[in-house]
Design brief:
heterodimer; A: alpha/beta; Rossmann fold; 4-stranded parallel β-sheet; about 15% strand; B: alpha/beta; 3 domains; binds iron/sulfur cluster
Chain lengths: ~325, ~375
């Protein structure tokens, strides 16, 4: 059986785990193509208009898999740590896709529920039950699959911490290739802040990474710092954030500014993103307090290339002048 | 100490009672107005959901009136509400205001923290005394809810437009003066009597519409341009899923709404078998429940970009097909206008009328 993983949303975080795990269950795994015009316009057409662009793209990726896959993998990632959640949209994603499955003639969905909110060890049992119920594996076989998947994921995360970006490691991220870079002394350290699916989807962000690097950015991204360090750095608020991924973002800006790791920050957020709309206030406050110039880039399905280029050019120019002046 | 907290529908009636009993001065923010909203929107992030923007506006206006202690409800997600307070505090401090800020976290989180928040505004408060006060004030809140629930239904049948509103106002005033539990009980009976006394036209052929959606939009008439009154005046009988007292003291039974949580979730399960925060599941479950009771249509109200409701909206087309019930979805933000709402509601009304006509023709 061939199972399709949409190249969208949490793909950028957990592909090594999922791919290894599903392969070990005896499945033939394929991923949808990179986001392209067709995929995005499918998504925009079927998804509810008010949703954020990455979720719209997810619909399109599911459609891109319908010819070749016998099933689509849409896990329900409720929580990835104790006492926290992911974004509500990840909680409802399988139901949202299921509601249009018939109309779009999608193959059956595989929707294991992963919830570590109450107890982190639950995660293992949730996957074991999934493997047993859906594919008739024994407990031992399932445990072996999980272990192997964990190793793959750990390796991925170790490479990230060594400085590789997810797009350097995940297959076929052609759109983000940087063609040339200015010499070292002409570069500025820029923190690129945001959800991985908003930063690394080259089609949606219009090659943001390559553009920034070609203009002289030495990019610093959240994935380069160990998860625990980020989480620790995010604790200086009167009440802990209950969204893990937002907490990583807060941790990143705190860590970067606190350790003087960046000259400026580009914060990429999706139009109408719920969690980001709130932490934006805290992020702006932090950048201001530490005197780090910041630019917020809002992305949606209409983002025009021209506007984006002008804005980042102006921002980088400003940074260049600032350093020379000082 | 001059305490304030944002508006939420008629909650200020209950709060007035509560703060009086706690012995602290309640700085009631001026009634929410377009100015409030503009003020809030100006200082809030663009994509923040509407309730946050109105909250910020209420807080600013309260601070201008001299409030020095602000209270905001908390929570744990997954939707945005539980983190509103932290962000609101940041916004207000960045504007240069000086105040005490208290987050009231749910009782279930820790009785001590819950008690301490009240003790901070009411020196000398004992746990026992707090319970007694909460119990009495809450019973008043329940009475206000029962009155407005009944008036939603009576308004559809009123013989002279405006009678129900007048009766409700008089009824609320009766309760305002009641002090002891016995007085509150007696006042409620009398108040309900005023609403029942509204002259009605029982022959009227009313449409039945269920209102579902996000709690703030459902509870705060300012945010939805008084949609319930508009519908009531058109002769539409209304029920809705969210009520102030069911919301502030969540419990299994949803006393005012009338359907236990478990049943609502059960009805939502075939479409949304997961709590997604806010009222996502309540919206889906509510649609199914109203449809099963033969309602003519459903109106879903939400702030633009509300995550749980956007999830529900994504699923509604399927619920609608399965249960053959029309659903009108209305999203609101600071750019929305009353005229737009009315046009859409009128068109929806015509659609429901036409459907009734054809259903009757078949029967
Ligand atoms: S975190 Fe924001 S961008 Fe990501 S799925 Fe949720 S709303 Fe969309
Ligand atoms: S339910 Fe919706 S509108 Fe209300 S706070 Fe949550 S996200 Fe915002």
């Amino acid at each position: 059986m061939r199972v399709g993983i949409p190249r969208s949303l949490l793909y950028y975080k957990y592909l090594p785990f999922w791919k290894t795990f599903l392969t070990r269950l005896g499945l033939d795994v394929e991923t949808s193509p990179m986001t392209n015009k067709q995929i995005l316009s499918w998504g925009v057409k079927v998804a509810e208009n008010e949703l954020c662009v990455p979720v719209k793209a997810f619909y399109g990726h599911c459609m891109a898999l319908r010819e070749t896959s016998d099933a689509i993998f849409v896990p329900r990632v409720v929580s990835v740590e104790e006492r926290a959640y992911t974004c509500p949209k990840f909680l409802g994603l399988p139901d949202m896709i299921a509601a249009v499955a018939e109309q779009l003639e999608l193959p059956p969905l595989l929707t294991p529920k992963l919830n570590q909110r109450e107890k982190p060890s639950e995660f293992k049992w949730q996957l074991i039950n999934f493997a047993r119920e859906q594919f008739g594996l024994s407990r031992l076989e399932a445990v072996a699959a999980i272990e192997e998947a964990r190793v793959a994921q750990r390796r991925y995360q170790e490479s990230l911490v060594r400085g590789h970006k997810p797009v350097d490691l995940l297959p076929a991220s052609r759109l983000n290739r940087t063609r040339f870079r200015p010499p070292g002394e002409k570069r500025k350290r820029i923190g690129l802040l945001g959800h991985p699916y908003n930063i690394y989807d080259g089609y949606i962000t219009q090659n943001l990474i390559a553009r920034l690097e070609e203009m002289g950015a030495e990019l610093v991204v959240p994935e380069m710092t160990d998860h625990h360090v980020l989480m620790d750095a995010a604790t200086d608020v009167p009440k802990q954030l209950y969204w893990t991924y937002e907490k990583e973002i807060m941790g990143a800006i705190n860590h970067w500014t606190g350790n003087r790791m960046i000259d400026g920050v580009v914060y990429v957020l999706a139009f109408a993103c719920g969690p980001d709309s709130l932490i934006q206030v805290l992020i702006e406050h932090r950048a201001k307090t530490y005197n780090v110039p910041m630019m917020s880039l809002t992305i949606d399905e209409h983002s025009g290339e021209a506007g984006l280029v002008t804005r980042i050019e102006a921002f980088i120019d400003m940074l260049m002048r600032k350093k020379t002046a000082a | 100490m001059r305490v304030s907290t944002p508006h939420l529908g008629n909650l200020h009636l209950t709060l007035e009672d509560l703060f009086r009993r706690l012995g602290c001065e309640y700085v009631k923010p001026p009634p929410t107005s377009t100015k409030t909203l503009q003020l809030g929107a100006k200082h809030s992030p663009e994509f923040a959901c509407l309730p946050l923007k109105i909250n910020v506006g209420n807080f600013i206006e309260a601070l201008e009136l001299g409030a020095d202690t602000l209270i905001m409800a908390g929570g744990h997600g997954p939707c945005r509400f539980g983190y509103y307070g932290i962000v609101e505090e940041r916004i207000l401090r960045d504007l240069g205001y000086d105040f005490e800020f208290l987050m009231l976290e749910p009782f279930g989180d820790g009785k001590r923290a819950f008690y301490r928040t009240f003790a901070a505004i009411s020196p000398g408060l004992t746990v026992r005394k707090l319970w007694k006060i909460l119990k009495v004030s809450f019973s008043k809140g329940r009475a206000y809810d029962r009155l407005s629930k009944r008036s939603l239904q009576v308004r559809a049948y009123e013989a002279n437009q405006g009678d129900t509103n007048r009766a409700l106002k008089a009824a609320e005033e009766l309760l305002l003066l009641a002090d002891s539990p016995e007085e509150i009980e007696a006042a409620e009976v009398e108040a309900l009597g005023l609403i029942e006394a509204v002259q009605q036209d029982p022959e009227r052929d009313v449409l039945k519409v269920g209102i579902v959606g996000e709690f703030y939009l459902l509870l705060e008439p300012f945010s939805n341009f008084g949609i319930e009154e508009v519908l009531g005046n058109m002769g539409v009988y209304l029920e809705r899923t969210v009520w102030v007292t069911d919301w502030i003291a969540p419990n299994r039974n949803n006393y005012i709404y009338g359907y236990p949580k478990k049943l609502v979730k059960q009805k939502a399960a075939p479409y949304l078998d997961q709590n997604v925060g806010g009222e996502g599941q309540e919206t889906i479950g509510g649609i199914v429940l109203f449809a099963e009771r033969g309602f003519d249509g459903i109106i879903q109200l939400l702030p633009f970009g509300c995550m749980p409701e956007n999830i529900a909206t994504s699923i509604i087309p399927k619920v609608q097909r399965d249960h053959d019930i029309p659903v009108l979805t209305l999203a609101f933000d600071e750019q929305s206008g009353r005229a737009g709402m009315i046009t859409r509601v009128e068109a929806f009304y015509d659609l429901l009328r036409a459907r009734r006509g054809s259903r009757a023709a078949i029967a």
